[in-house]
Write a structure and sequence with these properties.
2 domains, globular, 12 strands, alpha/beta, about 220 residues, Nucleotidyltransferase, domain 5, five-stranded mixed β-sheet, 6 helices
Length: about 220
């Protein structure tokens, strides 16, 4: 199946097309300009893959957690393309996509996203599966959760926030972010979700771990 996958959850826009032979064509763009660059990035990936949108069998996008604005842009684009072209779409949790590329490692896998206000979005993965809820957690609390684990891989766009702690703790590792691996995880998990559950519901929305600040009432 030809799959269009895009991740708009962070400041790095990442888009990929996976063709039916399993080859990946990836394009990334830094900076929070997803509304301006997403469609262009999709067109570029399709051209590199020698495909058109009408040849895509599934659209997969990250569903959160992540940037409120980025998630809305990504999901709105997926829904719009799905409606206009009759292509099914699915959302996949961002942290699952990040972890997927490291699932074969015999360590605890901990994807990390900066949630601002001294908080992190994270989850714990062991033996090829997620073993915790999605977490909105402080750095200190996250370290306490994995303190008893012999080896831990911190991965994802903001894993470097743990770099100083990893230097002091044998068995803790901070791995370089790999957008291509994240997109491969997104495409794979998207196909798995579609095969198991079918397309996303019409009213499916982003996975927010907290309320957007805009429009919140004062306490």
């Amino acid at each position: 199946m030809n799959v269009l996958a895009f991740d708009t959850a962070t400041d790095l826009l990442a888009v990929a097309v996976k063709n039916s032979e399993g080859s990946f064509f990836v394009h990334t763009a830094s900076g929070f300009r997803h509304s301006e660059t997403l469609l262009h990035a999709i067109e570029r990936c399709l051209a590199e893959a020698s495909l058109t949108l009408r040849e895509i069998g599934l659209i997969a996008c990250t569903s959160g957690p992540g940037s409120f604005t980025g998630l809305r842009i990504g999901m709105a684009t997926a829904k719009g393309l799905s409606l206009a072209l009759g292509i099914p779409w699915v959302g996949v949790p961002t942290l699952d996509c990040i972890a997927q590329g490291q699932m074969k490692a015999a360590r605890t896998i901990v994807p990390v996203l900066d949630a601002r206000k001294n908080r992190l979005y994270s989850a714990l993965y062991k033996d090829g599966r997620r073993v915790s809820d999605f977490l909105d957690i402080s750095l200190t609390e996250l370290l306490a959760l994995v303190d008893g684990d012999a080896e831990v891989d911190f991965i994802g766009p903001d894993a470097d926030l743990l770099a100083d702690y990893a230097l002091e703790r044998p068995g803790f590792y901070v791995l370089a972010d790999d957008p291509a691996a994240r997109l491969k995880g997104l495409a794979l998990l998207g196909e798995m979700r579609y095969e198991k559950e079918g397309p996303a519901a019409e009213d499916e929305g982003p996975l927010y771990m907290r309320e957007p600040e805009i429009g919140l009432k004062a306490p």
